[in-house]
Amino acid sequence: MTQKTAEKSQGSPEAPVFRCEGERSEVRRQAAVASGEAVLHRRDKDTPKGPHDQPQTMCPAFGSLRVGLRMRRTATVLSGSACCVYGLSFTSHFYGARRTVNYVPFDSETLVTGKLFEDIRDAVAQLADPEINDVVVVINLCVPTASGVPLRLLPKQINGVRIIGIDVPGFGVGTHAEAKDILAGAMLRYARSEAEQGPVQAPREGRKARPTVTFLGEMFPADPVTLGALLDPLGLDTGPVVPTREWRELYAALDCAVGAAIHPFYTDSIGELNEAGREVVGSAPVGYDGTAAWLEAIGEACGIQADAVGAAKDRFLPAIRQALADAPVKGRITLSGYEGSELLVARLLIESGAEVPYVGTACPRTPWSETDREWLEARGVRVQYRGTLEQDLEAMAEFGPDLVVGTTPVVQAAKERGIPALYFTNLISARPLMGPAGAGSLAQVINTAMGNRERFDRMKAFFGSVGSGTSAGIWEGMPEEHPEFREKMRRRMKRQGGAS
Q1: Hey, which residues does 333 pair with through a beta bridge?
Q2: Chain centroid to CA 389: how far?
Q3: How far is Cα 283 from Cα 377, in angstroms, rounded to an integer?
Q4: How far is Cα 86 from Cα 314, in angstroms, rounded to an integer?
Q5: Which has the least CB within 10 A, 66, 78, 378, 499?
Q6: Cα distance between residue 127 and residue 430, in whole Å
Q7: Helices 287-302, 306-326: inter-axial angle, 10-degree rounding
Q8: How far apart are CA 28 and CA 142, in angstroms?
Q9: Predicted confidence (pLDDT) at residue 29 exceeds the cutoff of 70
């Protein structure tokens, strides 16, 4: 978005300026001074940190950006360094966004003088056309957040178009999956305030006759259909999936009988449902045990008679058991990812017959994942919340799996060692997991990958002499090592507190 040439605003409070690579603790300290500790404290409480304090995934703001770009009649504005905006825009279009990513550029002068906020306000006013948009979302990235650009001071609406401003800095949000919840929660909060003030717009297909279940977390497109079939014997119907695809669905999401935290780290959204007087249950109907427990939890939360819950279990559990038996998985698998469904996939693999000694997720531990954690640990699984790349690699070395399911660097490391590996996000999480349809969905891709072990052995033997690391490739003379330089750098980093 084109902005007028910045003019220095007299009397505006000065704000600190940071490079993207600024030292994290100092950036966070200044952000607390500029924006107040309350937001950062709430974020730390909702998304507890682990052994690492910096995301090892893509920029977390991608999650919030993706939510806005998928919604009808929604305009999204990014406020951040140009390099960050370029990367986020590229990634969003790589993943199929068909909407413009608006950008308000800035320089040191507009940031320090407060002119950036004025430019953002002007940009929002340009986009607030009720004929085109229901809502305008403004996302502060690291530098504006740390400098205290006060999106909370934006008008709540312009020309009837809702205005929502959120801070999604890399130093305060763990993963892009959690950033989806930040925007979804902010939208639910706004929609709840509207519903409390009077009548609101009905869903596009109208209100459903039966009580509904709202699902929290993005799912495979077929999963809501399966969930609807599971809920039918209980006299319940499917509600919206949060994040929603249009604003009016938010009212229907709040108007539910119960919420289901399919992704248990949607803490902002859970809080909004709780504020609306709705209970939220955890886990998901994955596998035999998981489906039985989930149906019982939903039935209890909605006051469904025990015989109706029993009838639903009798209807679906035998089919799930048969699907698991028809698609067995044999082998040892380590599993990790940053989508938030890692524990559910591990449960399904174990019920399919696989040995899963380790599950790592970059997402935090919350009360809504306790059922899954307890089930897995009772079967000898090490569950690592806020897992790091280093922990995932250590698990691979420790357990010697037949297959590694993980993030891109984990998959790369496994294949370098001749171990078959699958990328969790594209090949595993993008499959149906719920009910009878999900019971056998993983077997083919998992078994096919494990069957490639001999192929990997042949490739490793063929390329084994070309070296690795800094010596990878074919050389007339091997690169000369300089251990004294490495030692010098190690000592320097230790003095600076960057390494032990």
Answers
A1: 403
A2: 17
A3: 15
A4: 53
A5: 378
A6: 34
A7: 160
A8: 10
A9: no
Mean pLDDT, residues 85-94: 91
Q: With CA atoms as reference, report the closest residue to 103 among 89, 114, 118.
A: 89
Q: How confident is the model at residue 27 (pLDDT cuts 50, 70, 90)?
A: low
First to last CA, the chain: 45
Integer-rounded Cα Rg, in Å, for the chain is 25
SS (H, E, C) the chain: CCCCCCCCCCCCCCCCCCCCCCCHHHHHHHHHHHHCHHHHHHHHHHCCCCCCCCCCCCCCHHHHHHHHHHCCCEEEEEECCHHHHHHHHHHHHHCCCCCCEEECCCCHHHHHHCHHHHHHHHHHHHHCCCCCCCEEEEEECHHHHHCCCCHHHCCCEECCEEEEEEECCCCCCCCHHHHHHHHHHHHHHHHHHHHHHCCCCCCCCCCCCCCEEEEECCCCCCHHHHHHHHHHHHCCEEEEEECCCCCHHHHHHHCCCEEECCCCCCHHHHHHHHHCCCCEECCCCCHHHHHHHHHHHHHHHHCCCHHHHHHHHHHHHHHHHHHHHHCCCCCEEEEEECCCCHHHHHHHHHHCCCEEEEEEECCCCCHHHHHHHHHHHCCCCEEEECCCHHHHHHHHHHHCCCEEEECHHHHHHHHHCCCCEEEHHHHHCCCCCCHHHHHCCCHHHHHHHHCCHHHHHHHHHHHHHHCCHHHCCCCCCCCCCCHHHHHHHHHHHHHCCCCC
How far is it, in rounded angstroms, from Cα 332 to Cα 401?
5
Residue 210 pLDDT: 95
Cα 135 to Cα 34: distance, rounded to the nearest angstrom:
27
Residue 8 has pLDDT above 50, yes or no: no
Instruction: In whole angstroms, give the CA distance from residue 23 to residue 38.
Output: 21
In this prediction the pTM is 0.82
- Give me the mean pLDDT over the 201-223 stretch: 90
